[in-house]
Amino acid sequence: MDIAEQLFLDKGYENTMVRDIVKKAGVAQGTFYYYFKSKEDILDEITDKYINIIVESMEKISKDENLNALEKLVQIFQFSLSFRNDTRSIMQYVHEKKNVHLHRKFEQRIPLQTVWPLARIFKQGVAEGIFNTQYPEDAAKAFNGISAMVLQGIDNADHNSEEFRRKFMAIFDFTERILGTESGVIINAFREKSA
């Protein structure tokens, strides 16, 4: 799987053949088909791996006892940006129209599996007096929904572009409103940490 992923990144998914994967792995083609039905099947497994990385990373951040809630939220934003940059070419392919089943997998699993780490952070922020919401679980759902809607359709956008920057600024603004913080609290914390 790791070899296939690297080849997808280096050559592109479309330009990578099963024979390339087995050659680099030093195994027979039959061995590949023992574990995977097709090249698409291995991409599906890589997609699962990425989903698990996202969920596990958010869980880890949410449970870090050395950070306050605002620092945790900033780390989640930073992780999200670095993850998008590190996995860009494969994620672009996952989000193409012809791979709607992989895109739907992301759309369905990520919001459901990241609600509780986010809610944990939001509850902590309420206890610390940083956030002001009576509904941390629903705030986490709203955050996920708004983030998905705002970022929809920019999988191929340059992450240094004005459009991408504007979308992230919008997410910061909406998140501040959802969490009842003063305007600029999350944006300024992100800028400070990213400087």
Summarize the structure in short.
With 195 residues, this protein is mainly alpha-helical. The chain has helices spanning 2-11, 18-25, 29-35, 39-62, 69-86, 88-94, 100-127, 136-151, 162-179, 185-194.
Principal-axis shape: elongated
CATH class of the largest domain: Mainly Alpha
Q: Span between N and C termini?
A: 36 Å
Radius of gyration: 19 Å
Q: What structural class do you assign from the helix and strand content?
A: mainly alpha
CATH superfamily of the largest domain: Tetracycline Repressor, domain 2
Any idea of the CATH topology of the largest domain?
Answer: Tetracycline Repressor, domain 2
Secondary structure tally, helices: 10
Mean pLDDT across every amino acid position: 85
- Contiguous runs where pLDDT drops below 50 for at least 5 residues: none
Task: List descriptors.
Arc Repressor Mutant, subunit A, 195 residues, mainly alpha, 2 domains, Tetracycline Repressor, domain 2, single chain
Task: Walk me through the structure.
The structure is a single chain. The chain is mostly helical. It folds into 2 domains: 36 residues, Homeodomain-like (Arc Repressor Mutant, subunit A, Orthogonal Bundle), CATH 1.10.10.60; 156 residues, Tetracycline Repressor, domain 2, CATH 1.10.357.10. It is built from 10 helices and no strands. The longest helix is centred in the middle third of the chain and has 28 residues. The model has no long low-confidence stretch (mean pLDDT 85).
